[in-house]
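Supplementary Text 2. Reproducibility record for the structural model of the 962-residue chain.

All settings were left at their defaults, and a single model was retained for analysis rather than an ensemble. We include the record here because the model underlies the residue-level annotations in Supplementary Table 4.
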Amino acid sequence: MTTDTAGPLEPLADRLARTAPGLRVESGPGATGLYAYDASNYRVPPQAVAFPRGADDVVAVLRACREAGVPVTARGGGTSMAGNAVGPGVVLDFSRYMNRILDIDPAAGTARVEAGVVLDALRSATALHGLTFGPDPSSHSRCTLGGMIGNDACGNRSVRDGRTGSHIEALEIVTADGVRAVADRTGLHPVDPRDADRVARLEADVRRLISDNLAQIRTELGRLPRQVSGYQLHHLLPENGFDMARALVGTEGSCAVVTAATVRLIATAPAVALLALGYDDVVDAAEDVPEILRRSPSAVEGMDEAIVATMRARRGPDSVTGLPEGRAWLYVELDGDDEATVTARAAELLDALKAGGRMTGGRVVESAAERRSLWRVREDGAGLAARLVDGGESWPGWEDSAVAPEDLAAYLRDLRELLASHGLTGVMYGHFGAGCVHVRIDFDLATDEGRTAARRFLHEAAALVVAHGGTLSGEHGDGRARGELLEVMYSHRMIRAFAAFKKVFDPDGLLNPGVIVDPTPLDADLALHTPEVLLPVSTLFSFPHDEDGFEGAVRRCVGVGRCRSDVGGVMCPSYRATGEESDSTRGRARLLQEMVRGETVQDGWRSTEVRDALDLCLSCKACSSDCPVGVDMATYKAEFLHQHYKGRIRPRSHYSLGWLPLTSALAGYAARPVNALLRGPIGGLLARLGGVTTNRTIPAFTSRRALRSVLRGTRTQAPAKALLFVDSFTRAFRPQVAGAASRVLADAGVPTTAQDGLCCGLTWVSTGQLSVARKIMARTVAHLDNGDERPIIVAEPSCAAALKRDVPELLGTEAARRVADRVRTFTGALTDLADQGWTPPPLPENVVLQTHCHEYATFQGHRPADLLRRLGVRKVDEAEGCCGLAGNFGFEEEHYDTSMAVADLALKPRLDGIADAARTAVVADGFSCATQIDHLAGDRDLRALHLAELLDPAADQPGETS
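Retained model, structure tokens:
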């Protein structure tokens, strides 16, 4: 066993060392701080986190914890919004190692999976057989099957596919006393014959409990499709065959720990149509749901305007396309075996809804790209609603109530009135076709008065939904958020039956305590209930979008976990490379929150735990765009490094690479001897002394003479319409890009004048030398903010991003903001400023493209891929992800392996897939991206071109100047 446990956990650690020698257990602040949170309002630091590799490890933990009296909480992706995945004892993280798909049987239509398998991984594997797992929560890219079983999750297509429980054939469980068993549709069966008596007694006790409560179970449970609250004991009724598997689904890990499951698969429909329908408000939308349901849709999803506005503000106006006019929308999906039939059904439904008169607009979304865009808005709803475009914060707590679909409009109308009577605002979205409403509310959970008001509202909301015949929870489970409210929904006798059911399985109350049975108060353990004294925070970055500065910025993370996705977007490359929670954007943000609290992490800015968690952050900035709440970990890391090393000796690479703009400028005066020196033995010694890896070739410096020659060539006879900012990387390593950019822009009707000798300060920012960065930036702004209003075009995307975002946020002056407003990338300049009739020289048929992460994150709506397609490139194969070099990161000795692992995720497979190099160009505007490509190419005849080199009218072939 690998562990750092101490203190009261020592007896537990000693036992685990004997019984599970390979088990990884962590109990330091760097682990417990991460796992104190899920996606709910709660914070419950565990004593330790264990990472089982198999069922035997789980048995060992449960037996040891029972002996020591330590609670156990099972956890998957940690995306619970009700507080189901946090606990005070040992947290079992199944997602790290127990994530194997054990079997797929296409003929039987089943799959056997471990609890930590991510839903999308299962769906990708089964898609090869034309099958899928029906329930599809919006968190499908990171939620685990174990978590879905714990909550009885549903998803966007629950109108047709229902809840997780209806797709479960069998569960492999471990009981609180460490007995392995299989729960299936006929009962409970021991894995080890020696446990037969124990399992038989357990089953007999359950049967006796059901027999004693038949009337209550039949009248109170299973009344509507989304009734997830409480335990699903009706599946154990005689008429339902004593389905133990389904009864344990939705118990939130409070009765047994699920280690694996056999699930039933369904066939994927070959034809799909999506309708986007606009309404004046969500109540009008809900009024049309019964009519829509008569057409047998596969999905009916709703959302209000606040979510769409936030998405457009965060990712650009083009991030949401295809929505009709309205302030609330429904997505209606129809599917079937025949495209013509599905299309006809969609048209008929549209006509029927138009005749109804409530719709403000509607259309069939035919573009696959538009469909993906629209579904992403809906799937990011929880995060987008958490931090809105106006900066307001909203929270879960009443985010999962459900009623019968035909009563949805009336319930929403009454719920809005209740919110208004309490002076609260709610952002509404959800599975309208199933009557399930997700609403995030602007509770004040940080003050005693606000928490009292929230408690009062929640009790009244519970009474309201019960009055409408509904349920407290429709798929998220009760957890800590609604366990206390079960007494509003159920009779005292049913509450006692729930308690008795748990006691049969968990007599000592050690499995996920405080959830469903004997619940903790709903306003206990709130994360916003902070200590009176927080870490004094005085930062150099201004964090202008966060009212509370750095504290408010790191609080943006609400735990939805999109950064734990393996596919889609760019965030988070380090997590994708390592699979560790501590290397995810969420994990880092949570640890920074702990640092501000000063409880688990007690060393403030000097914290080594926070430093270590930030170590593998590539500062790619992708999270600032991909994260639904806009966490910007690159900026947080820069601020932390500034504070952490203030007045201290820094890592060697902070000097060798952080001061690169200055050293490269000096090297330009003697480029030839410097390059020769670096290529020899002394170069390796200097690299090691500077903390730079020797696995890479140091790029050759350009001489001042060569730079002057290129800059002379950028002069044009026509009056300059823009400034061409010659950044430090272009100046030092590839001045030919400046020449090509000048020629292309002139050819496109945008003659420029070169601005040399200035720096954006990026390398000092990324290494946390913010005081120096501010001086560099202030000088640059003073030169550029001289009354000139012409656009500033920057060929290097990372420098453009620094001028656009870092400069105004670090300087905080009007002059810095004026300069930032003028900044364009090369792609952006051609997109916005080029003559309408401009056509480039002939282009290759195929382009493999690596978009710089900073360009991806900062310049929404100006993507190189879109420009290349518009200019006539037939096939653009974009490596969706970070290149791995990431400025100084991949040159640092200790980060080389991670850098290459990140490259293996997207970039290297694209390069390896080039079949015809003569007809394929490789384009990478970022200097670090191009350097990584050259490194990966090795002896192959591949060279990364800047887009300007590809479009250069003076080139005989792309990248070759005549």
